Each structure stands twice: as C-alpha cells, then as structure tokens.
Amino acid sequence: MRISILGCGYVGLVTGACLAEIGHQVVCTDNDESKIKTLNQGALPIYEPNLDEIVARNRKAERLTFTADLGDAVRFGDAIFICVGTPPLQDGDADLSSIDSSARLIAAEARSSKLVIEKSTVPMQTGQKLKRALEIYARNSGISFSVASNPEFLREGTAVLDFLHPDRIVIGVGDERTEAQLREVYRPLVEQNIACPIHNGNCPPKVAPRLLVTSINSAELIKHACNSFLAVKISYANLIADICENMGADVDEVVEAMGLDARIGPQFLRPGLGFGGFCLPKDVQAFIRLGEKAGVDVALLKDAERINKKRIDSFLAKARHALWILKDKRIGILGLAFKPETDDIRFAPAIELIRRLLQEQAQIQVYDPQAMEKTKALYPSIRYCTDPHEVADSAEALMIVTEWEVFKTLDWQRIERAMLRPLILDGRNLLRGKELAALGFEYQGIGKPIDESLAHIPVSG
Ligand code: UGA
User: Fold this and answer.
1) Is 28 a catalytic residue?
2) CA of 461 to the centre of ligand 1 (A)
3) pTM (2 decimals)?
4) Ligand 1 centroid vs 286 CA: distance in angstroms?
5) 370-419 pLDDT tens trace
6) Four-way CATH pick for 228-309: 3.40.50.2000, 3.40.50.1100, 1.10.1040.10, 3.40.50.720
C-alpha cells in the first residue's frame, strides 16, 4: 500500500520505517525541516535501537522516503497515519492542536479520497472530531475521508521489536471498507511472513498477534486504559516499596513473589524513582481529565500520579538523611534518560532530581550513554563526564537514576577509591548492595530497610 506518515518523532519514524520493512511504500514528512534534512543525510534525529538499520535498508530499497513537502506527502498515500505530538496543556488535557493542523493540511492538499488514521495518543471521541474537521475543511472539494484509530503500543528502547512483534494490533473503525484497508496494512504482521529484520537476531519467536477490530471510541480508550494501568501498577510497586522501607522488608523479594502469580505478572512492578517519559505521565493526566469530564471518580488515577510525584521527594529525603546538608556536596549521577536504551529526557526523573539538587546548591556531575546532549541544552553548567567512572571523582554520593545495563559492570573498586565518601543511593535497585558493601561502599536501594548507619553524623568542631 502507499502510506504517508505525518510527524517524524519516535512514533512516526518507527511506524514509517517498520511499515516499509513489511513491504509498503512509505513517505514520511514533518514540519520541522531540519529533521527531514538529517534523515535525508542518513542520520537519525533520535536514538532508538535497531531503527538505523531498518531506516537505512528501506531507504536503499526506495520503499521509505522523507520529504519536507507536506503537500506531496499527503497526496502520496492512500492511507495517512497522523503521528504528531499531543503534549499536555497546563490543565492536563492533551493539546490536540497538531491533530487539528494535520486535518487542515490533509483537507487542503488531498486530491483523492484518503483513509486518515490516528496513531498519536488522543482522548476518546477525537476520531469523531477529526472526521468532522476533515469534512468542514474540505467542504466543496468533493473528496471524502474515512477515519480510523490505530493506537501504538511501542515502548521507547524496544519500539522496533514491539512494532514487528506486537502482542496485539487494535484497529478502531467505523465501516467494513476501512477495516479491510487496515487489515491489508497489517497482513504481513498478522501472517508473520517476514524474516527477522534485526541484524543481531534478537527477534522473539514468531507468534501471530491478534488483530482486534473495535469502534473508534473503544480503540482510543484502550490506549489510555493501558498506559494508565501500567502507571497504577508502578505506583503500587512504589507504595509497597515504601512500606518495606519503613517496616523492614525487601521490596525485590516481595514483587518477585507477586509477579509469579499469573494474575498479576512480573512486568511493571519495578519500584524506583517512578514513571517518566512522554507517555505515561501525560496520558494519566489526560485520562484523569477525561474521566472528570465524564463525571467518573478518578481518585485511583490521581493517587497513582501523586505517589509518582513524591518519588523524588523521598529519594532526596534519603540523600539528606545520609549527607545532612546538600549545599556544596559533590554528587555523581548515573543515568539521565527516562529509561535505558533511549536518549529521551522528557519528564525524566533525572531532570527533576537535578533541578532540585541545583536548588539546594549541590555540585553535580553526570553521565548517561545516550542522553547527555539533550540534557546539556537544559543544564549547561553541570559537569558532563565522558566516562561513567568519572562521576565518582571526589563525590560524596553516587546516585543511580537510570538502570542502564552498562552500569552493572563498572569498575566498582576504582569508583570506591575515587569517591570522597563511597556512598551509593540506588534509585533503581540496579546493583547488588551486599557485593558493594563488601567492597567498602555504603549502599541504600529503594524499598530496602533503611540502614541507620547511613544517618549523617555532623562533625563537631
Ligand atoms: C509506554 C508504554 O509502555 C507503551 O506501551 C506505549 O506505547 C508508550 O508508553 C506510548 O504511549 O507511546 P514508554 O513511555 O516507552 O512506553 O516507557 P515504559 O517502558 O512504559 O516506561 C515508562 C516509565 O515507567 C519509565 O520511566 C520507566 O523507568 C518506568 N517504569 C517502568 C518503572 O518505574 N517501573 C517499571 O516496572 C516499569
């Protein structure tokens, strides 16, 4: 099929590249011309594992092209995927102005009938509004539009594999023709007749995903319901962690046992500094607003959000407990991205943590395998280390904020020698406390009984 993608962010790029990979002709566009220039030079504006390989292969095969000409892109596809941003407004509602501009663009530039698909995360009933907007903006043109919702369930860091090996594909449609078109788009995935496209062979076993056909409203709701559930699950794990910490149990032991119950499952029970990124926090907010408008009691979601916001407070309290005054204390931070395997720092716990530490005038030195450039734009004056071991230089505490695999195998003896005080505050329970203690570290994880020996004893005189 001929497919157009509006928006070359994480969702648009992965969707466009993977649709080309499964055999479609894809043209991607974005109103940020610099992004298109970068893509046409063979580089990627984001870091996402395996995406470079897929983009390069499909550009070479001429199945995937990038253009800054928005009109050309609209005219190219029989199906147009809207993959633009829907950031939060001040009041928590999703800002849908880019969806509206996409409708204007499509209506103005289309010369034939189009299937317009919402891929961006939007509140329920947006599809109805989008359809109406297209009709109004294209009034008198004689061109008709059908609208569908096809939510994405891509996790940053594993988005390519998630696209090619989905648990399920949801298509929200209003008529049979649209259903048939979308079935055709996803046929190669449903039939699983594609070779593992990832060079390192990390593809999961082939399992045909279920394709669920729903109403447009249901499809929109499914996306918000899933992300909000994941957020609630994480906050629940963090609530358990707090109880463990205060009453003397180990949260890792508790959630492991919980996760073995098939009804609960092990995923998204990792306690820590809470959920960040550009999806969960904003989607929970937007879902709260939607529920409130619907007159539904959304206290559960509000509590999940409240628990999440307090994660940084309790981590800082732990730092003060151990370090007493933070002013002028040199603190090393490992990890800036909102999760491993991405360079994305939007709503990342590290960004809020650094802001708060700077407020208390701590001296900060940081390292992240991918996210340093983006962080530099926000905090130009903190120290950026070229090697993760450097964050230990004369530091009085080292904070683990993102659980990158590489941090597990650092030279901890070297780090212990470099630190002024070998104290580790592990915000993701990434490291083994006992092994570090044997090397001479003081170690405090999340949801572990608080080690009273870590309480700072002010030096007198
Ligand atoms: C999330 C969803 O997982 C995807 O299914 C969805 O498609 C995507 O949002 C989206 O709406 O586009 P993503 O934002 O990439 O994906 O990240 P997650 O893997 O969900 O992690 C979100 C945050 O929760 C991260 O900060 C992570 O560190 C945190 N987290 C995750 C925990 O604190 N504990 C856990 O057990 C799991």
Assistant:
1) no
2) 49
3) 0.94
4) 16
5) 999 999 999 999 999 999 999 999 999 999 999 999 999 999 999 999 99
6) 1.10.1040.10
